[in-house]
Structure formats: C-alpha cells, structure tokens
Amino acid sequence: MQVTETLKEGLKREYSIVVSAAELDAKVNEKLAEAQPEVELKGFRKGKVPLALLKKQFGKRLLGEAMQESIDGAMNQHFDDSGERPALQPDVKMSNEDWKEGDDVHVDLKYEALPTIPELEFKTVELERMVAKADADSVDEALGNLAASSQNFKDRRKGSKAKDGDQVVFDFVGSVDGEEFEGGSAEDYPLVLGSNSFIPGFEDQLVGAKAGEELDVNVTFPGDYGAENLAGKDALFKCAVKSVQEPVAAEINDELATKFGADDLEALKTQVSERLENEYAGAARAITKRGLLDALDKMVDFDLPPSLVEAEAKQIAHQLWHEDNPEVEGHDHDEVEATAEHNTLAERRVRLGLLLADIGMKASIEVTDAEMSQAIMQQAQQYPGQERQFFEFVQQNQAMQQQMRAPIFEDKVVNYVFELATITEKTVTKDALQAAVEALEDN
Q1: What is the DSSP letter of 42?
Q2: 292 contact partners, CB below 8 Å, separation of at least 6
Q3: I want to staple 365 with a disulfide (CB 3.0 to 4.6 A). Which of 18, 109, 146, 360 is the partner?
Q4: φ, ψ for residue 269, nearest 5 deg
C-alpha cells in the first residue's frame, strides 16, 4: 500500500492512496481461509471445501469488503502515524473509476486537519464572581408573586361588569345549526376571562357581562378543531351568568406556606431565600463564564478549519433569520447568506469550541452515563405522558445524544478551568447583578 501526500496547505490535506491488486488478493485469500473451517458446500464435508472453489463462489463479494477494509486501514494508519485528526468526515473517492478486477485501486483522500492547540497557563486567568444575597425586600416580592399565583376569587359588587382577569361562573348550552352537540353544555362553569381556555372569541363576548344576565355568544370553531363534526362550523352558545368574581391574592401566612409544601411562613421564607440565591448564583456563573471565554479567546490564536467556520456561520445566519421572522416555522425558505459579522462570530465559536474540546481531552473530562440519563430525564419532563417515547428516541438518535452531551461537557470543562483560574468574589446587589445579566444578553 502506498500513501502519497499531494497537498498540504494550511489545514487542508490531500493524499493519494494506492492499494495493489496483490494486496487485495492476499486479503481476500485471508478472509477465505478464516471462513473455510465453517463452510459447507454440496459434495464436500464441512471445512473441506477447496480455497479455489470458495474463491470462485464468494471472491467477488469478499473483494469489495477487502477494498473497503484496506482503504479504511490506510486512513487509520495515516492518522495514527501523522497524529492528525480530521475536522469533519474525510472525503474519500476512488480515482480510477474504470477499475476492474486485477487492477490496483487508486483513492483520493481529502480533509481539513484540526489545528494544534497551544498549552495555556490557566492560573494567569483573572476573573470576578459576583455574589448577591436575597434581601428582605426580594423575599417579600417573591412571596407576593406566590400569593398572586394562588389567587382566589370573590363576588364583585352587585351590578358590576366582568373584566379581563375576572372569573365568570355561568351555565351554557351550545348548538350548531339548531342542534345541541355533545360536550357543548355545562352548569356553574368557572371561566377566567383572558385565559384563552375557550374557543377564540368566546371569552371576549363575556367581557362586560353582569350577574343574572343572559346572553348569546356566537363563535366559529377553528378549522383544525379536534372534533371533525364541529371543525369550521358556526356555533351559538346560550349563556346564563350566575356571578362575576374579581381575583384576590392569597394572604401571605402559614396557610399559603402549606400550599407550597412548607411547614409555616418562616420555613417558606427560608425556601424562597434559598431559591433566589440559587438563581443569583446561576446568573453570576453565566457572567463569570462569559468572562472566562472572553479571556481564553484573547489568549489563543491558531488556524481554523474553513469548513467548520463556514458551517457555523451559516447556522448562525439561519438561526438569527428565524428570530427576525418568527412567523416562518419551516426551513423551505431561500438560503440565508452569512455576513461578515456572522463569520466573525462563527470564528470565535469554532475557536473556543476547539479549545474547550482540547482542554477536556487533555484533562480526561467525560460525560458519564448517569449525567446523560439525568439530562434526558429532565428534558423528557417537557413532554408529559410521552417521557418513555422521548427517552427511546434519544437512545436511538446519535445526533440528539451529541446535542445533549455537548453543553454538559462544556460546563464540566469550564468548571475545571474555574478551579485553576484566579477568581475573586465581589458582593453586589440584586439590581447590579440584573444589570450585568442584561448587558450580557445585549452583547
């Protein structure tokens, strides 16, 4: 086997690989010899079929396997000898397309090599970590939000008109073309106006209604409504309003605390304080992480594989286009061209991605099965009732597994560098932390 370098320009590599006909024939014979003891053919005992007959019977099929194994072996040997790793799947193409049995095999190998990443002294990285404590005002504000989310309703003054956010208790009977339909009637039904829990347009017609009032609500069922017999149909709902109730926030007391699993109000305050400080710590970590990435980006300078930068720039351009055009859900639109700004951001992402991957590899950082399982279970909770199907989907989808593994790996590498870097803590207010987070989101 002969491997000849034909191009070495930056990170671009091209090689010509020649596998001789004699090498292929020897590999085919080797495969036949391995299989011979287990082969049975009519007229021969098991293991006694002559190699010449086996070659006539199975040689062509084994020749294809031998070619593939030889080419794969040549590539693997090349990467082992050179120490290089391809940035993407190498392009392997047979160059003598008029090949016939008995000819040498000529293959062109093209790829972009991953760059050599310089060693860094992480102790020289100086970072600041913000520390914010949950003060009494923040805890009171959070308790107020909990009370509002646990709101009750009380009757409005007699004769009051229903407003958005009010709860209307009413009876209704629905009909289509004068015929009542199944599931279209109820008594003493509590409906919060503005909750959008009824057919579009229904709740709007109850705004302004009073207790004791009877009114007709005319709506049209959506074309994609679940019940085919109602989809797209005009409907009439005869409604009798029994009461109009205004929302009242729950009182902040021991009773509220028990609703949220705490023994009493003091215990709930402690839980709320801990939750707030965990949120503050998460926000502070995001800010420190950005500071670390900025510092690392300034510390390194190496060639980047053009194909990786181009792919990343296209992805960034595509993602930002969809953010600017949220009404377009599919991807069958015209191709989005990457700008110079997209390319600059792509270069940073690729550079940092390669650097973090190299740090993680040298530090033997890996994502464990337990960490992956936990991540899958957390994401599966977004699909109530379909957790098992989601779990099975991820297990069978390598791309999805890699998509979920990447952020876990990155966080572990960042934590590793945090341990080695010089980090000073700075106590700040919640507002200062929030301002830093907003500045982070703007950049």
Answers
A1: T
A2: 125, 127, 414, 417, 418, 421
A3: 360
A4: -60, -40
**Residue 169 or residue 100, greater confidence:** 169
Would you tell me how many other CB atoms lie within 10 Å of the CB of residue 129? 15
> d(Cα 292, Cα 345) in Å, to the nearest integer?
17
pTM of the predicted model as reported, rounded to 2 decimal places: 0.72
C-alpha to C-alpha distance for 353 and 275, rounded to whole angstroms:
32
DSSP state of 124: G
- Write out pLDDT tens, residues 277-318: 999 999 999 999 999 999 999 999 999 999 999 999 999 999
pLDDT over threshold 80, residue 127: yes
Q: Using one digit for the tens of pLDDT, what is the confidence trace for 226-256?
A: 888 899 999 999 999 999 999 988 889 998 8
Percent of the chain with pLDDT over 90: 65
Query: What is the distance between the alpha carbons of residues 201 and 187, in angstroms, rounded to a whole number?
Result: 20
Q: Which residues contact 222 (CB under 8 A, 6 or more apart)?
A: 199, 200, 231, 232
Q: Using the Cα atoms of residue 188, residue 191, residue 192 and residue 194 in order, give the sign of their dihedral.
A: negative
**Bridge partner list, 238:** 173, 216
d(CA 368, CA 376): 12
Instruction: Give the dihedral sign, CA 313/315/320/321.
Output: positive
* Cβ burial, residue 254 (10 Å; 0-12/13-18/19+): middle
pLDDT greater than 90 at residue 59: no
Going 322 to 328 to 331 to 333, the CA torsion angle's sign is negative
Residue 209 neighbours by CB under 8 Å, 6+ apart: 161, 162, 168, 170, 215, 239, 241, 244
**In angstroms, rounded to a whole number, what is the distance separating the alpha carbons of residues 443 and 220?**
46
d(CA 132, CA 430): 6
d(CA 115, CA 307): 13
Give the DSSP letter string of 52-102.
HHHHHHHHHHHHHHHHHHHHHHHHHHHHHHH---BSS--EEEES-TT--TT
Higher-scoring residue by pLDDT: 224, 234: 234
Nearest Cα to Cα of residue 21 among 70, 57, 61: 70
The average pLDDT across 117-139 equals 94
The backbone torsions φ and ψ at residue 392, rounded to the nearest 5 degrees and listed phi first, read -65, -35
What 218-221 contacts at long range (C-beta under 8 Å, 24+ apart), as own/partner pairs, is none
Integer Cα distance of 51 and 38 in angstroms? 12
